[in-house]
Amino acid sequence: MKQKSEKPDVKALIITAAEEEFLSVGYAGARMMNIAKNAGVTHAMLHYYFRSKDNLFEVIFKEKAGAFFGNFTPILESDCSFLEKIPRLIKAHLDFVTKNPRMPLFLLYETSKNPGLIRDTLSGNKHNPIAIFYQLFEKETKKAIRKKEIKKIDPLELMLTIFSLNIFPLLAQPLITNVGILPDNTFRQLMKRRSQEVSKFIIAGLKNT
Predict the structure, then answer these.
(1) pLDDT given for residue 3 in this prediction
(2) Which is deepest, 120, 149, 164, 204, by most CB within 10 Å?
(3) How far apart are the first and last CA of the chain?
């Protein structure tokens, strides 16, 4: 007796195709026709699952922002000291952006070009991953300052410094590799060492002297 072949998850196919479309060309450049074609569904079926491009973008943005920031919550909530959390946070962030190099630019571009859309996407969301992450990061940083574990520092400044040090090499990779500063394989080796170097730099700046 033949086993019935499993039907493809149409919604998952659409989301995968939409993710590729949005990451490649952004919200403004994305076309529902392309998403339907790449998902292997009709335009009518696409609209059955997702009524509009805004609706589909909302799903993708929340999913990507959740994946981007959600990695850090368990680290910040752990029982280890703040100075022990910092290298783990840096490594988790760098591992994620290295595996998803288009993600930081996607988040930055869309929040810059479509602030109203992003506000609408995240407004009223109790599980806003960006707000949850920053509130927890701010809380843990201030607690470490009160305990005199680290010197006084603005939590936002600290977060921006960490993210900038991790993300900039990936944004600059085409320049670094294409003009002959570093070949691709050497750049990959540099990125493997990056979390240790960034951790040393950040911790040295946080310690009370």
Answers:
(1) 47
(2) 149
(3) 75
Residue 1 predicted with pLDDT over 50: no
* The pLDDT of residue 104: 77
Place of tokens 């019935």: 4
Question: Given pLDDT bands bounded at 50, 70 and 90, which one contains residue 4?
Answer: very low
- Dihedral pair phi/psi, residue 65, rounded to 5°: -65, -40
| CA atoms within a 13 Å half-sphere pointing along the CA-CB vector of 18 | 25
Residue 153 contacts residue 206 (beta carbons within 8 Å): yes
pLDDT at position 126 is 64
Under 8 Å between Cβ of 147 and 203: no
Output the pLDDT for position 80: 93
Asked if residue 111 lies in contact with residue 180, where contact means CB atoms within 8 angstroms, the answer is: no
Q: The whole model's pTM is what?
A: 0.78
Cβ-proximal residues to 8 (8 Å cutoff; 6+ apart), any chain: none
Q: Could you give the CA distance from residue 45 to residue 11 in angstroms, rounded to a whole number? A: 10
What is the C-alpha to C-alpha distance for residues 198 and 209, in angstroms, rounded to an integer? 19
Whole-number Å distance between alpha carbons of 140 and 133? 11
What DSSP designation does 126 have? Answer: T
Rounded to whole angstroms, how far apart are CA atoms 25 and 47?
A: 20
Residue type, 26: G
89 class by beta-carbon count within 10 Å (0-12 exposed, 13-18 middle, 19+ buried): buried
Question: Can you tell me the distance from the alpha carbon of 84 to that of 203, in angstroms, rounded to the nearest whole number?
Answer: 9
Chain centre to alpha carbon of residue 79: 24
